[in-house]
Amino acid sequence: MMKRKEAKSQDYINNLKDRLEYAHKAAAEMSKKSQLKQKGGYDTKVRGATIQKGDRVLVRINAFEGRHKLSDKWEKDSYRVLDQPNKDIPVYTVQKEHGGGKKRNLHRNHLLPVGFITETHEHNEENKPVQTLRKRKPTKVPPTMIPDRPVPIQDYRQNESSDEESVELVIIHSDADDDSNPSVTDLTSQQGEQK
Predict the structure, then answer these.
(1) Which of 18, 104, 105, 136 is most exposed, with the fewest beta carbons within 10 Å of its own?
(2) Which portions of the chain have biased composition (kind: Polar residues) (predicted)?
């Protein structure tokens, strides 16, 4: 009886081991498949200037002190690309441009290509920009609401003795002389007909 229990437990252990190995292999395959799919999407959307040996670059600051929002994202010193050790991966060897500093191996995401930086050590008065005052543009006057032709206003009073009813007069200004726009007399005459 002990042998049967040991045999059953050994079978259970072997079965569990096989299932765990299968699950591990299946997860690894799915992970690899997902990784290749994401890489394909990233490679199609990636836009960046290629970096070659001898290019000038700035290096991203990864260790921030204080608030990240206001701090500089790139180091002040420019670097020169010395080499790309492996052509299959975007990792470059860089060193500070003016000597000094050690060689660093950095990924392309941490490098910003610099097109042209002028090196001026002297600040001459001639090179300073001249300040000029901006001229103000004249403000536009909004068009007035006064029509080109006079609008006839008629006094419509019905029962002067009744205080309960009030007459409301609406004035509509129209720019066109066509009959498609209602006039004041039309509105007031319609109002008189309704009562």
Answers:
(1) 136
(2) 181-195
